[in-house]
Amino acid sequence: MTPELERALDACASEPIHLPGAIQPHGYLISCQLPDWSIHHVSANIEALTSAPPEDMLRRSLREFITDDVIQTIAETIGFAEPGAQAQRAAVANIGPMAALCEVSVHVAQGLVHIEIEPHVRGAGERSPTVVAQAMITRVAQGGDDEGFHQRVAEQVRLLTGYDRVMVYRFRHDDSGDVVAESRDSAMPAYLGLRYPASDIPPQARRLYLHNRIRVIPDANYTPVPVLPDRSARGEPLDLGQLSLRSVSPVHLEYLANMGVGASMSISIIAGGRLWGLVACHHRGVRHLSPGVRAAADLFGLFVSMRVAAREQQEAAAMEDGARAVRDTLALRLAHASDPRLAIAAELDLLRRAVACDGVALLQSGRWYGAGRTPPAERIPDLLAWLAREAHPAAPAMTDRAEDWSPGPEAADGIAGVFALPLDPGSDEWLLFFRCEQIEDVRWAGRPDEPFVVAGDGSRIGPRASFAAWRETVRGSSAPWSDADARIARRLWLVLREHYRRPGPHAEVGDLRGHRSRLDVRDHGKRLLQLSELLDGLVHVSPVETARLSARIAKLEEELQGLVSSANLAGSSSR
After folding, report:
1. What is the arithmetic mean of pLDDT over 485-507?
2. What phi, psi does 189 have (nearest 5°)?
3. Rounded distance, CA 152 to CA 143, Å?
4. pLDDT of residue 236
5. Which of 96, 177, 541, 560 is the most buried (most CB within 10 A)?
């Protein structure tokens, strides 16, 4: 990577796209403060709607420009909305001295009520968004295969919106993305099966997609409309991240122009509190969508998100059921072993069934035990060197790249992924799961090593101009270790560590307090299992609630691992 390209990537990733100081010109913005509805910000084009210059509206009450019934509806809408929620449709109302029929949306941020107003498109959105979305859901819900489902999603969104091309775009573990389904006009180039580099959608843009489920650019050649003033009363830049009308990055507009796109829309697909993917829509010319159509697309997107999340939960539950059976069997066998620590080497075939892998190995007392596909023994020093750099006594280490722990793919003998569980912090004793490399023939949408066009002096950057398919053969990487893989491995690790420090079933027979402690721990384990069964009914929770629940579970797991690590450190020091 050249210094110029590195600077370009850093600049793109740090661009404050939520602070553009402007909106798109197809609507108007009025930002007020309660309880007096005093106007603090307006868009520079507001005079076209209210016949009042922007400077004459500032610091005056909204009631001077909008009727009380509309304000009451706005107040009721924000009263029902959750803090931090995206903009909600509030009303279709006549606004201004010319009584222009407008769609009104509202949300609260930075202590301000942000009111977005768009001219109503006559004859559009006559059907209820809920009815439209229900009809779309009925059509896509037929069939259970993922590929067919995604294709039906693309077709239904294109039928609703009329865009020239609609794609279902799925993010990968490295934040690059694949086009997994596509519906398009025959004159549009096909992008199905292409992969886009992570730099095409930088981190701050992915974060905003979590908050703005629908993003529309009716005319990619628009001139931004400034927000006046562009800073808050405290002198801070005005955060427009939740606005539907928010002006987008000039680099993104140039990116669309290079693709031949005149208008676009995206629908976020959110699963487990993370951005799973997007339904990305492109049109060759200008295309305006009514708020009613966008509301139907939003409802449909929520269904798609729930369907994707439910499928992932089903797959994770099936994996966990198998892993739980392995843990129970392993715990029973180790509990009855004369020396549980030495008995682990005989259970490697069983351990292979707990985590999706191609092989498993145990490094214990300088000896190497393996089952399935494992690296040759001469790679042990390389593995230990990698573990010394990356691992922590109280936490597993993982990678999906052979170059991280071996001199290269050839030296790794076809193995790439490693998931290492430390068994004894005081010595190099590890349980390691391995995955074979996956040789991929990747079709990129343009060269991934040329994501930007950089001026020779580095003074200007722009997005790449070519999206022609570029092939690359990728070696030395395995399927990545998923969050579900990590959870299963960590729970298995807790079982192994608990038995690893216990010499045998009779060592604590006389220790009544220890016996009672073990009974208490078993009771706690039963309670956790009962709680896990309750989670099966939580398929339809919101992304925010899912993320909050995930954070609490992660905190509990961290505390349990800390307890086990402390106990093992104490047990190790006493031996």
Report:
1. 77
2. -65, 145
3. 10
4. 87
5. 177
Nearest to 418 by CA among 354, 500, 475, 361: 361
Highest-scoring range by mean pLDDT, 14-18, 125-129, 159-163, 570-574: 159-163
The H or E element spanning position 180 is: strand 177-184
pLDDT over 70 at 204, yes or no:
yes
Mean pLDDT of 367-393: 89
Nearest to 432 by CA among 369, 346, 367, 390: 369
pLDDT band at 509 (very low <50, low <70, confident <90, very high): very low
Q: Nearest CA to 165 among 252, 261, 251, 248?
A: 261
Return the ∠ at Cα 304 (arms to 298 and 104), rounded to 5°: 5
What residues contact residue 34 under an 8 Å CB cut-off, 6+ apart? 113
State the Cα–Cα distance between residues 195 and 420, nearest whole angstrom: 30
Q: How far is 154 from 216, CA to CA, in rounded Å?
A: 17
pTM equals 0.80
Residue 505's H or E segment, with its range, is none
